[in-house]
Design brief:
Elements: H1 4-9, E1 17-20, E2 24-28, E3 36-42, H2 57-71, E4 79-82, H3 86-89, E5 98-102
Antiparallel strand pairs: 1-2, 2-3, 3-5, 4-5
The structure holds guanosine-5'-monophosphate and zinc ion (ZN).
Length: 111
């Protein structure tokens, strides 16, 4: 399958990895929109949030994001978790990914 994030998981493409275990990979976004901009993904290929049925991995993803927020020191200042789904939200990579953004004041609403 020609999935760029699966290639990152298989170490076929380099990435700046922040956290890894058997289920979850977290790495720095190559086009950061905030001082902290980390992508947190399940190692199992799931295309979108529409395909998440009965997957316990969401719990693991949030546990990892919680841990990274503490490590990066943004757990107190605040952060945003974003999932873009589909065309209207501008999803560019069809492998489910959570954006963890922080380190600056984030505006609301998003565009
Ligand atoms: P989306 O628009 O699908 O929600 O977000 C895709 C994100 O993946 C973008 O923020 C983009 O900068 C990031 N991205 C795309 N390709 C790569 C890559 O090869 N490596 C890394 N680290 N990030 C990527
Ligand atoms: Zn994939």
């Amino acid at each position: 399958m020609d999935c760029i994030f699966c290639k990152i998981i298989k170490k076929e493409i380099p990435a700046s990895i922040v956290f890894e275990d058997d289920k979850v990979l977290a790495f720095n976004d190559t086009n950061p929109q905030a001082p902290v901009h980390i992508l947190v993904i399940p190692k199992q290929h799931v295309a979108t949030v529409n395909d998440l049925d009965a997957m316990n991995v969401v719990r693991d993803l949030f546990a990892v994001m919680n841990r990274i927020a503490k490590e990066k020191g943004i757990d107190k200042t605040g952060y945003r978790i974003v999932v873009n789904h589909g065309k209207h939200a501008g999803q560019a990579v069809d492998h489910l990914h959570f954006h963890l953004l922080g380190g600056r004041k984030l505006t609301w609403p998003p565009g």
